[in-house]
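Reopening this ticket.

The earlier resolution said the output was attached, but the attachment link was broken on my side. Pasting everything inline this time so it's all in one place.
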Amino acid sequence: MSKLPKKYQFFDFSDYGRSPGHWLANRLKNTILTPIHVTTMFVVVGIFAIFLILNQYYITAAFFIIIKSILDAADGELSRLKKTPSYVGRYYDSIADILLNFCFLLSFWYISNNSISIINYVNNVDFWITELHNFFFYILFFSNSNICWY
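Inline output:
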């Protein structure tokens, strides 16, 4: 996880978009685009991926899900590079992630004909794992004023 100081970094398989996101953020650093613009782009790309899933274009949808993940990593990286972190951006990014993940799960439910209770269970597990991760992340790093995590 490259957004952490060197001594706290660890391998995170779900962070596959971080390196391309860093590359993209460096390209956007000297443009008029803000992290909020990039977050909005990942929402649009995510909604398009859901549309593709619902219309059974699964491989194309997978490609757009990867693009969404890269944009999701790029917004925070762009915020750090431009030194423009904000509570609004952090909140928007988190809410967008939660809503898109829920919509992805609903689309998987729709195409799989499974019980909605399974999707609800998966969504709750995903939500609580994310919340616990964020909670312990902030506890661990909040006391060190040299670390900027957003």
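Reporter confirms the inline version is readable. The two ends are 13 Å apart (CA to CA). The mean pLDDT is 82.
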